[in-house]
Specification:
Blueprint lengths: L4 H17 L8 H33 L26 E15 L16 E15 L4 E10 L15 E14 L2 E9 L22 H4 L6 E10 L4 E9 L26 E9 L6 E11 L11 E13 L2 E13 L1 H11 L11 E11 L2 H4 L6 E16 L11 E14 L2 E12 L5 E11 L1
Antiparallel strand pairs: 1-2, 1-16, 2-3, 3-4, 4-5, 5-6, 6-7, 7-8, 8-9, 9-10, 10-11, 11-12, 12-13, 13-14, 14-15, 15-16
Amino acid sequence: MRLPFRKTWILFVTLIAAATTAAPARSDDATDRDTAQQDRIEELEKKVDVLTDELSRMRTEQAVPESGSLQSFAGMGPAASKVYGIAKGLSIGGYAEGYYAHLFSNKNQNPNGDPQGAASMTDALRTVLYVGYKFNENLVFNSEFEWEHAGVSDDSAKFDVGGEAIAEFAALDWRLRPWATLRTGLMLLPIGFINQVHEPPFFNGVSRPEVEQVIIPTTWRENGVGLYGDISENVSYSAYLVTGLDSLGFGPDGIAGGRTLGNQSRAEDVAGVVRVDWRPPLEGVLLGGSLYGGGADQGRSGFGDAKLMLWELHAQYRWQGLQLRALYTQSFIDGASKVTRALVDRGDLDPGQVVGNEQLGGYVEAAYDVMPFLGLSSDWSLTPFFRVEYYNTQQSVPSGFDRDKSQEVWLFTPGIGFKPTPNVVYKLDFRSFNPAQGKTTNQVELGFGVAF
């Protein structure tokens, strides 16, 4: 980093003065001359030390630090955790992902929700900027700003497509104790694998697991306050109080539309979420779960006293190139019958459609990095994977309504990811959607992702 002009001039004048005064003095007393010269050298050294310290301070507080390797902290994604690893000052990071998809079976049933029903499509899915500031070792602000589908433009309406520019999270962390950090603001809920760690180099597949989008509505963030920390060396926890979901957005396909996103959120109902993770002595093993519960009617007339409870259990094992994951989740809507009737009366649902009072899903995934067997660069990885998912947003429905069996789906996803460096990935996979009622949908996806 270059020194400011003023400091550069001071250093220049100081060096010139030292050089000038260091010339042999017209004195017959050699001892006095040597002593004076030594004093001048010491004074110059002090000034250089002051300027060096000033330069170091400017590097720390005013520069954007660069990190060689990204490490996850407090359950957040590695790139999102960047600010926690600096001494002080500003931190900038981010991630991006895009893909090409081709639908083989039925162009009118595109799982990625293409509004034009095209068999092939490309999407600049996400461009994300993390901005954080570390005030001191105990106070950190962290935020994520996201542009989805290349953002929003005047042409969106013409092509019947929509983008999004939104704050994904914006939270202030205050470390009160080694085991307790207070978090306030717009927060990612600590549920499942993907909701907090959704940077593309750190999950398999072009698309995130459907279970963690349909049953667990990733990305799920709400305004709130809470604590997180490590109870012991092997046990961590999160406990938040947040704005509750709004059942006005519920539908036959689940609860994702009920997220308030921190946007002038109705706060007539609140909810609590607790997560615990345990890393037993066996290296590479993670076991954990989370529980969410709270009101969901938000004081709306006709919606009754709707409530939602959601829980999930997750397990992970990593050993050398092997990666294994499993997750199971269920949610229950108390008052689904009243919510359904209120939505039908408003015209938000067609007669005969229903909001399920029970949703469930789960998946298992296996992956293995085969690059060591190929004898190529040690920085590269080549990881085939296979994931099997099952989800049903209408596992049960209120009496007097019929289940929509198209909401019960098996999904099979084989694929492969190649990383020329740990934070850059190229992905290829094949997804086969098999609903209990309706046509099978097969899709190939090719994508990329970066984190920094």
